[in-house]
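testing teh design pipeline on a random one, pls ignore if ur not involved
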C-alpha cells in the first residue's frame, strides 16, 4: 500500500505541471521531404526546453544525428514522429550515439534528461524507429547485445518526469530504458516491433526489441502499455526499486523478466518492491512470430564469472524481494512462471548468492503449452523464501494435471498441489 500511495502522490505532483503557465512557447512543423529537421528541433529545445513549452505539429521530423533533450520545468506536445534515419553503419559508429546506460554498454540515439517535465504525444506521435531495415540487416549479420544498436527512447538522470500516450514504431533494438532516475511516470506507451517482410514470417527476427529495461531507478510507474516485441516486454534490471506496473499488454517475445541479474561481479543488483497488476501476455499468430515463452520469469547469473559483460559475466550478488504479480493472463505460454539462477553458467560454476524472497503470484489465469506451469529453481547457495500463490489457475494442455516444480525453495504456499515435479519444463 505504501508503494501505491507514494506513486500516486508523485503522479499528482507531475500532473499539476499541466496547469503551469510557461513563459516561452516554441512551435514546429516538419520541413518536408528531403529536408533535415535535426537543427530546428535542437534550436527549439534550447529555446523552450527549460521553463517553456514546445508544440510539434503532425508529420515526420527527419532526425539524422544523436540528440539530448535537457528538459527543466517544461512541457512538450508531440503530435508528430521523430523519424530516425535508418543508416545502420552511421549509428553503429560509437561516436554517433551516447553511452549513458551503463549496463551492457548500451547505445542511445535519443536521450531525455532533466526534471519536472511532461512529454505528451497524445497517442498520435512519438518515434519512428524504422526497425525493418535493421531487422533485415541482422538476418545476415551477427547480432550481439551491446554492439551499438541504439535504444529508441532513453530517460537518463531524470527526476519527476511524465511521458504520456507515446508511440514508438518499429524499434530496432530496446524500445525504452529508464536509468539513474526517480519519480518517473509513463502513462500510455505503445511499441511495435513486427517484421513485415514475408521472407521472415514465422521466425523471430526481432530479438532484443525489449519494451523497457529499468535500471538504477526508484519510483517508476508504467501504466497502460501495449508492447509487441521479440524479447522481454519488460526487463527489471539491477537497482530497480518501487516499480509499479498496471494494465500492461505484452504481445509475443519472452514475457516479463526480472533480470538478468548478477552479471557484473563488482556490482550487486537489488530489486525491491515491485507491484504489477493486470498483465496480459498474448501469443502472436505463429506465421508472424513464434515466441511466447513466459508470463513472468526471473533469472540470475551464477556466482562464477564466465566471460565478461556485455555478453558474458556472472559473479554479482544482491537480492530480489517484495514482488507481487497479480491479475495475470497468459495465452499459450511455454513456461508461465519460471525462475532460474544458472544464466551463463556451466556445470562447474558456483551457485549464485543472489537471493529471491517474498514473491507473490495472485489471480493467474490463461493457458500453458506445457503441463509444468510453475518452475522455480533457486540456487543452493541462496534458497528462495516465502513464495506465495493465491488463485493460481493457468490451464494445462488437454486437461493434464498441472505440474509444479520448486527447487531450493524453503517456504511456499497456495498451489493446488505439491511443488515437487522434476525434470525440464
Ligand atoms: C533527411 O535529411 C537528409 C539530409 O541530412 C536527407 O538526405 C534525407 O533525404 C532526409 N530524409 C527524409 C526522409 O526526408
Ligand atoms: C571517433 O572520433 C574520434 C575523435 O574524433 C576519432 O579519432 C575516431 O576515429 C572516431 N571513430 C570512428 C569509428 O569513426
Ligand atoms: C503491429 O504492427 C503490425 C505490422 O504493421 C500490425 O499488423 C499490428 O496490428 C500492430 N500491432 C498492434 C498492437 O497495433
Ligand atoms: C486491464 O488492462 C487492459 C489492457 O490494458 C485494459 O483494457 C483494462 O481496462 C484493464 N483492466 C482494469 C480492471 O483496469
Ligand atoms: C564494474 O566492472 C565493470 C566492467 O565489468 C566496469 O566497467 C565498471 O566500471 C566497474 N564498476 C565499479 C563501480 O567498479
Ligand atoms: C545497487 O545499490 C547498491 C547499494 O547502494 C550498490 O552497492 C550497488 O553497486 C548498486 N548496483 C548497481 C547495479 O548500480
Ligand atoms: C483476475 O484477473 C483477471 C485478469 O487477468 C481479471 O479480469 C479478474 O477480474 C481478476 N479477478 C479478481 C478476483 O480480481
Ligand atoms: C520479506 O517479508 C518479511 C515479512 O513481511 C519481512 O520481514 C522481510 O524483511 C522481507 N524480506 C526482504 C528481503 O525484504
Ligand atoms: C494435446 O493434444 C494435442 C492434440 O491431440 C497434441 O497435439 C498435443 O501434443 C497435446 N499436448 C500435450 C502437452 O499433451
Ligand atoms: C509429489 O507429491 C505427490 C503427493 O505427495 C505424490 O503423489 C507425487 O508422486 C510426487 N511427485 C514427485 C515427482 O515426486
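output:
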Amino acid at each position: 500500500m505504501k508503494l501505491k500511495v507514494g506513486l500516486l502522490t508523485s503522479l499528482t505532483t507531475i500532473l499539476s505541471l499541466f496547469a503551469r503557465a510557461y513563459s516561452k512557447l516554441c512551435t514546429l512543423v516538419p520541413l518536408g521531404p528531403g529536408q533535415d529537421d535535426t537543427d530546428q528541433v535542437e534550436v527549439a529545445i534550447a529555446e523552450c526546453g527549460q521553463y517553456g513549452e514546445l508544440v510539434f505539429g503532425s508529420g515526420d521530423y527527419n532526425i539524422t544525428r544523436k540528440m539530448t533533450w535537457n528538459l527543466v520545468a517544461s512541457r512538450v506536445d508531440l503530435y508528430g514522429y521523430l523519424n530516425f534515419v535508418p543508416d545502420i553503419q552511421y549509428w553503429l559508429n560509437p561516436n554517433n550515439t551516447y553511452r549513458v546506460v551503463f549496463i551492457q554498454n548500451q547505445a542511445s540515439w535519443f536521450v531525455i534528461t532533466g526534471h519536472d517535465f511532461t512529454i505528451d504525444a497524445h497517442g498520435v506521435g512519438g518515434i519512428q524507429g524504422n526497425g525493418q531495415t535493421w531487422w533485415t540487416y541482422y538476418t545476415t549479420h551477427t547480432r550481439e547485445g551491446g554492439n551499438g544498436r541504439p535504444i529508441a527512447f532513453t530517460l537518463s538522470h531524470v527526476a519527476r518526469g511524465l511521458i504520456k500516450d507515446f508511440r514508438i514504431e518499429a524499434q530496432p533494438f530496446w524500445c525504452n530504458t529508464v536509468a539513474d532516475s526517480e519519480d518517473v511516470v509513463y502513462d500510455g506507451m505503445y511499441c511495435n516491433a513486427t517484421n513485415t517482410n514475408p521472407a521472415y514470417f514465422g521466425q523471430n527476427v526481432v530479438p532484443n526489441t525489449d519494451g523497457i529495461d529499468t535500471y538504477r531507478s526508484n519510483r517508476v510507474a508504467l501504466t497502460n502499455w501495449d508492447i509487441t516485441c521479440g524479447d522481454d516486454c519488460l526487463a527489471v534490471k539491477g537497482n530497480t526499486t518501487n516499480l509499479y506496473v498496471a494494465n500492461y499488454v505484452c504481445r509475443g517475445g519472452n514475457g516479463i523478466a526480472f533480470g538478468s541479474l548478477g552479471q557484473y561481479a563488482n556490482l550487486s543488483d537489488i530489486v525491491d518492491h515491485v507491484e504489477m497488476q493486470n498483465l496480459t501476455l498474448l501469443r502472436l499468430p505463429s506465421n508472424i512470430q513464434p515466441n511466447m515463452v513466459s508470463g513472468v520469469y526471473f533469472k540470475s547469473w551464477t556466482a562464477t564469472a564466465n566471460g565478461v559483460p556485455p555478453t558474458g559475466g556472472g559473479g554479482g550478488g544482491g537480492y530480489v524481494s517484495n514482488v507481487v504479480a497479480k491479475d495475470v493472463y497468459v495465452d499459450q505460454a511455454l513456461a508461465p512462471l519460471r525462475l532460474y539462477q544458472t544464466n551463463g553458467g556451466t556445470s562447474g560454476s558456483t551457485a549464485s548468492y543472489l537471493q529471491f524472497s517474498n514473491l507473490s503470484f495472485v489471480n493467474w489465469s490463461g493457458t500453458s503449452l506445457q503441463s509444468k506451469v510453475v518452475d522455480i529453481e533457486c540456487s543452493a547457495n541462496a534458497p528462495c523464501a516465502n513464495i506465495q500463490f493465491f488463485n493460481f489457475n493457468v490451464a494445462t494442455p488437454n486437461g493434464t494435471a498441472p505440474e509444479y516444480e520448486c527447487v531450493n525453495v524453503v517456504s511456499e504456499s497456495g498451489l493446488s498441489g505439491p511443488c515437487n515435479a522434476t525434470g525440464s519444463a
